[in-house]
Design goal:
The complex is a heterodimer. Chain A has one domain (10-102). Chain A has helices at 10-35, 47-73, 83-102. By secondary structure, chain A is mostly helical. Helix content of chain B is 65%, strand content 0%. Chain B is built from six helices and no strands. Chain B has helices spanning 2-31, 46-62, 76-104, 120-135, 139-155, 170-175. In chain B, helix 2 (46-62) packs parallel to helix 5 (139-155). Classes of the chains: A mainly alpha, B mainly alpha. The interface between A and B is large, with 42 and 47 residues.
């Protein structure tokens, strides 16, 4: 009997990562500036780093769910990027990286 | 022939990166850059964005030299270890970016002292500033940006042609092509 195909969860994971990044960059920034007493001159400098931090955290949660799934059912989720999106996402990531290198977050 | 060229590229990469590192270390030692010069406006510079895009596409094209490798189904224990490694790496990355956020929130381009929290992005920017101040274009920065983007394009955005013994997709079978 052929094995059941794995669940494709790419879009859900992408949504989780994006939402987590947005949350860290907005609500997280307000909390961060309160906790670390950021000087008014530097406010906003940390937004980009917090957004990436949030994305990493969202991806971490997804990876934890995959570990749980692997232990429980012996099958991981399929989270590979759909082939038709691969080129667009890679280009967007490259442009974002280029902008991060070419522009400044420091005042 | 192309597989051989691909192998040669992989063999030459470590010595190239090592030589680049030695020259960079010597350049830093010679110039002793400690801070950025806030009076200069070297960034944004679209040259770096262009070089990075070219490197990314170039790295992907280099993967055309080798056919798709065989993929073997991993055992359960290995699969769990792989997922655990991925989760651990992402947790470490989260911590690193949080520390980076603390650093970027406590330093400005106008500071003349070194940063207390040492944000990585600040020092990358300083390196580019010092490089451009030294030679106008920032050739070392161009070499580093190009090297990193070629590596990313080659390994993370690879596009290997299918193996000759690989089963054809239904669409290919219909067209009678591979």
């Amino acid at each position: 009997m052929a094995a059941r195909p794995r669940k494709v969860l790419f879009w859900r994971v992408a949504l989780l990562v994006a939402a987590s990044g947005l949350l860290f960059a907005t609500v997280g920034e307000l909390l961060f500036e309160g906790i670390f007493a950021v000087d008014s001159h530097y406010r906003g400098n940390e937004r980009a780093a917090l957004a990436v931090c949030g994305c990493s955290f969202g991806a971490f949660l997804a990876a934890c769910a995959n570990v749980y799934q692997a232990v429980k059912t012996n099958r991981t989720f399929e989270i590979a990027i759909p082939a038709n999106l691969n080129t667009w996402l890679a280009t967007a990531a490259a442009v974002a990286l280029g902008l991060a290198i070419g522009t400044t977050v420091f005042r | 022939m192309e597989d051989g060229l691909h192998l040669l590229f992989h063999f030459l990469l470590p010595p190239y990166l090592a030589v680049l590192g030695v020259f960079l270390g010597l350049a830093i030692d010679r110039n002793g850059p400690i801070t950025c010069d806030p009076k200069q406006t070297y960034l944004p510079d679209w040259l770096f964005v262009g070089v990075e895009l070219a490197g990314l596409v170039g790295g992907r094209l280099l993967s055309h030299w080798r056919r798709r490798p065989y993929v073997v189904q991993t055992e359960r224990g290995r699969e769990i270890m792989g997922q655990l490694a991925m989760a651990s790496m992402l947790l470490i990355l989260t911590g690193i970016w949080f520390v980076e956020a603390i650093g970027t929130a406590h330093i400005s381009m106008a500071d003349t002292s070194t940063a207390t929290f040492e944000p990585i992005t600040f020092y990358i920017r300083c390196a580019i500033y010092n490089d451009r101040a030294a030679n106008g274009v920032g050739w070392w920065s161009v070499a580093i940006v190009l090297s990193i983007s070629v590596l990313v394009g080659h390994w993370l955005w690879a596009d290997h042609p299918p193996r000759l013994d690989e089963p054809q997709s239904p669409a290919q079978e219909e067209r009678g092509t591979r």
